[in-house]
Structure formats: C-alpha cells, structure tokens
Amino acid sequence: MRNTPGYDPQREMHHYDEQHGYPQQSPYHRPEPRQDMSASSLTPLGAAAFPPGLATPQNSMLSLGHQSHDRALPGAVAGGAAAGGIMGTLGGLVGKGGNKSTAYNPVVPAADYNLGQEKSEWLSKQKTGGKKLRWLVIAIVALAISGAIAGGIVGGILGSKNSKNQSSSSSGSPSGASAAEDNKENGDLSKDSTEIKALLNNKNLHKVFPGIDYTPMYTQYPDCVHYPPSQNNVTRDVAVLSQLSNTIRLYGTDCNQTQMVLHAIDRLGLNGTTKVWMGVWQDGNATTNARQLQQMYDIFDSHGSASFAGVIVGNEVLFRKEMSITQLGTILTQVKTNLTARNIHIPIASSDLGDNWTKGFADQVDILMANIHPFFAGESSTDAAAWTWQFWQNKDVPLKTDLTKNYIAETGWPSQGGKTCGEATTCAVGSVAGITEMNNFMNSWVCQALTNGTNYFWFEAFDEPWKIKFNTPGKEWEDQWGLMDVNRSLKPGVVIPSCGGKTAP
C-alpha cells in the first residue's frame, strides 16, 4: 500500500515505460484495482503542506499531457483571454525581478496550442468577406491585444507583490528550497545538526513498532529526474522514523532512495541499530522490473548487505494480477541465486494481500509477508485488532508456522476520509476513518503485539498527499494513513502507546 511516505506529498508520479510512455496506474498503488482518475483531478497542494527544506512541487511532467482541453472559451473571447493570460504570465515573470527563492515553473500554454497559427488560419478564412467584416476582425484583434496588455500589467503587479511576500515569508527558513538549495543552505545534515537534534527528541514518539513502512518523497521514476529527492529530507525522515522503529521497509529502488536511506542511517549514527528491508518493485512492465532488479544488485555490489534485514521482491503483484505465482517465483529464485553468488545470505521475501498467499507461493520465499488491513474489511476500530490477529492466524500462519518467518507487512488505519463496509453494501458500524478510530486500533494492537512478539510493519508514519488522486467521493482516505502529517508533526489527537516503556527490538 505504501506508494509513498517522510514528508511525502509526491506529485502525480507514474512509472515510465520507455516503449509505451506513462501508464494510467501508479506503481505504488495499494487499494483495489480501479481506473486511474485524470491528472487534472489532483487537488493542488498549498505551500503549507511542504516542510522545511522542500519546495512546493512543480507540476509533474505528466500533467501537461493529461490536461483537459475541453474547457475552451467561445469565439474571440477565448483568443483575448489566452493572449491576456500569456502576457500576464510574462508580466508576472518580469514583476518577480529575478527572485531565485521560488521553485515554481512559469505557466506556459500546452505544447499543442499555437496561438499565432490559430489566429492566422482564422484570419485567412475571412478574406472572402466584405469590408465591414474586415473592420470587425480588426476590432476583435484590437480587443485581444488590449486584454493582453491589461493582463500583462496586472500580472506584473501581482507577480511583484507575490515576489515580495515570498521573500519576506522565507527569511530565516529553508522552506521552498530545492534539494540542491537545501544542501547548500544546511550542508549534509547529521546527528550533530541543530535541526536533527530537535527532531530526535520527540517525547510523543515511542519505539513500539517492529517495523515501519516508508517511501521517500520524489522517488518515483522518471519524475525524480526533473525534481530529484532531497538527501536532507530523507535524513530528517529517518531521524523521526528511528524513534518509532529499528526497521524500515522500502518499496522500490528507483531514484537512489535506498542509498539515501543508508546515507541517512550513517549520518545519524544508526549503523548496527536501524535495519532496512530493501523493496524491489515489480509489476507487468518488463522494463521496470529489469531496472529495479539491476538497481538492487548494484546496491548490494556497492554497499554490501550489512545494513539490510532482507529483500522484498514485489508488493501486491499477485493482487494486481500482473504476474502469476510461477512468474514471480521464477524471479525470486533468480534473485536468491544471484545474491548467493555474491556471497549475500539474507532473507528473500515478497508481500501481497493476506488472501493471495498459498502454500506454493509461501514455499518460494524465506519470509511470508501479508498485507492485512482491517479497515478494508469493514471492521469497527474496536474489533480491528482481534480481526487482524484471527485473519493472520487462520489464513497465513498455517502456510509458515514458524512465526519468525511470517510477517504482517502492512497494517494500519486512516485518520480521516469516510467509512467503508468492506464488501458489504451497508453496515451499522463499519470501518470509520478517524483519529479516535486510529487510536482504538493502536490501543488494542500495538502493545499486545509487542508482548507476544508479532512481526509486523505499521502502515504508516507520514501522510502521502500525492495519493489524493486515488480518492473518490465518500472515500477520501488514500492520503491519510500517517501517524504524522507531511511536516512530520504528530496529528492532533493521535496518541502512540508507550507500552510501559517497552520498546521493539
């Protein structure tokens, strides 16, 4: 389910197929399969959603290709408005006066919109008309030019005012900085950095989770090529994660995310304490799969295996019906063979819905990892812990009875967004997304699981605003699974159990 987490409002990022371009489905999509909504439906995120050291993300390179072109203005008004908009944009850029603190790209017309060509073709069709019509054309063009000039003036004024406001609000803070600017401003953050010391002393965080699911922001290819992830941001995230768990689960290898987490662990002095489950994303795209696997081998060749608890090859690939058990099993066998040849002997796993595990599938992995979400089953928050335990014991534990080799790879609860009845059409209580309900589940699960030694990963530490695009009316919870918001602040009302001071290994 972890498509993306730290501060992780990942833009509408999609995996890229060199042969077919951008697919409709995000590679990190967890909920039940459904048609992806248009990129134009993604609610823009305000500057307040972005923590220190990170800029409000620029529009994804996808969005230009997915923009709706059906909302054209009628007749000459459209031409005037378009011209005014273009001039307004230019005026805004001039008004900014070269302010370098902003990371926004200028708004430009879509690539297939050629105002000059459109106007020329329209005028050429009028040559057969009379003098009166020609005068009408001149008047319309004049009106368009007037609109452009007015737009330019207003844009210049607003651009200048916005520039001043941005300058005054950003003083003394790295907010709005790109990855490179963050590094230039703060250097390579470490446990000795003032900012990190503050993050490492949160009395409301408790290390009670055996594992935590995490994906750094801006680590979905190819968007990271245009807007790379911030090492400092990952270091900030890991500083927070280290107070929740000693084990971090990743979902993919793209965009150097694994290397950045390893670097953060090193800078924070957590080597030997914090371990990583490397994630290797697999789907129905052969190019994606080959790239992810090769990156995994490259990481091991460069960094060795000491920092890793194991490797998770594929997440819910069977659930999405992008591979068969046989196909995934072949990949798992190849991975084990290739790692053994490198003298690397760590557990090889795969994660999928608890319902998708079979004895044949379980026999192909060292560790079974089942994603079990009581919320999607329509269970009430007060019954969620009991349901999760019973489901795991009845469905998945019999497939690998040695519980050191049987993990719950995802379980959690969203803090808001609506109600679900699971597969039922109606229900008296159902699963309600809310802070109280999240606390209910944690209170009846976390300390009990810690006591009985259940291996599981909590989904998840941070909200993922980029997943707003997967929300539907009445089911707006996709981006609300974090214990903390995107600024790494514990959500108001969320209480992480202290379990009497007991901590996860």
TrEMBL record:
InterPro entries per UniProt: Beta-glucan_modifiers, GH
Region (Disordered): 1-45, 162-190
One Gene Ontology cellular component annotation held by this UniProt entry: fungal-type cell wall
Superkingdom, taxonomy of origin: Eukaryota
Keyword Hydrolase: yes
Keyword Hydrolase: yes
Protein name: glucan endo-1,3-beta-D-glucosidase
Lineage of the organism: Eukaryota, Fungi, Dikarya, Ascomycota, Pezizomycotina
